[in-house]
Amino acid sequence: MKSKDKESAAKKAKDFVQVAERTHKEAARKADAAEEVSKQAKSALKQAKKEFKVASKSAREARNAADEARSAYNKAAKRSAKAEAKLGKSRKKAAAKQAPAPVKEATEKTAAAKLVAAKPVAAPKARKKKAAKKGRSKATKSPAAKVAATRPSVEESAAAEDSFVLDESGLDVQ
Questions:
Q1: Where are the domains of the chain?
Q2: Residues sharing a CB contact under 8 Å with residue 162, sequence separation 6 or more, in sequence order
Q3: Residue 166 and residue 172: Cα distance in Å, rounded?
Q4: Cα–Cα distances in Å, from 80 out to 75, 76, 86?
Q5: Is 40 or 170 the better-scoring residue by pLDDT?
Q6: Which of 65, 120, 142, 155 lies in the 20 to 30 Å Cα band around 104?
Q7: How far is CA 86 from CA 77, 90, 93, in A?
Q8: Residue 163 pLDDT > 60
Q9: What is the mean predicted confidence (pLDDT) over 126-143?
Q10: Is the pLDDT of residue 68 over 70?
Q11: pLDDT at residue 129 is higher than 90
Q12: Could you give phi then psi for residue 170, rounded to 5 degrees?
């Protein structure tokens, strides 16, 4: 019996070894599969990082371009507002110049125009560009000077009352 016990113990040991080998092979196969999946996940992660980097870079560039466009728009709006203000001032000046002149001045102007027409016309001189004016401080004029500048003088108001206006309907006395 002792030899039979030894043989059965050896057989059991062989069975255990075979079972252990099978489980080891199965574990190795699963480990290889897991390693392959891990490699694929790592490569997908690298690709995602690259795509994220490119997307964030393009977003940053787009933000910078938008900021530049906003600042350019603001500058253009300010420039446009200044131009509009200058245009309004020049329109007011032109309207003031086109106001009806007194009769005496009108006859003097026509006489002066006839004299100019009689003289030979000289070539127009090239105009020099004026230097940019420096901005005035707001407190340069006194309030009394401002009021006096806005009111017409007594002589001008009297002359304006005696002026004539030529409309489409004809000559109107003011």
A1: 1-98, 99-115+143-174
A2: 102, 103, 174
A3: 6
A4: 9, 6, 10
A5: 40
A6: 120
A7: 14, 6, 10
A8: no
A9: 58
A10: yes
A11: no
A12: 135, -150
C-beta separation of 92 from 156 below 8 A: no
- Token pair, residue 32, equals 């290889």
For 84, phi then psi, to 5°, come to: -60, -40
**CA-CA distances (angstroms) from residue 146 to 97, 136, 138?**
20, 14, 12
Q: Residue 162: which of 106, 113, 93 has the closest Cα? A: 106
Q: Which two tokens stand for residue 57?
A: 């870079």
Largest Cα separation within the chain, whole Å, is 157
First to last CA, the chain: 152
Three-state secondary structure string covering the chain: CHHHHHHHHHHHHHHHHHHHHHHHHHHHHHHHHHHHHHHHHHHHHHHHHHHHHHHHHHHHHHHHHHHHHHHHHHHHHHHHHHHHHHHHHHHHHHHHHCCCCCHHHHHHHHHHHHHHHHCCCCCCCCCCCCCCCCCCCCCCCCHHHHHHHHCCCHHHHHHHHCCEEEECCEEEEC
Amino acid in the structure at residue 172: D
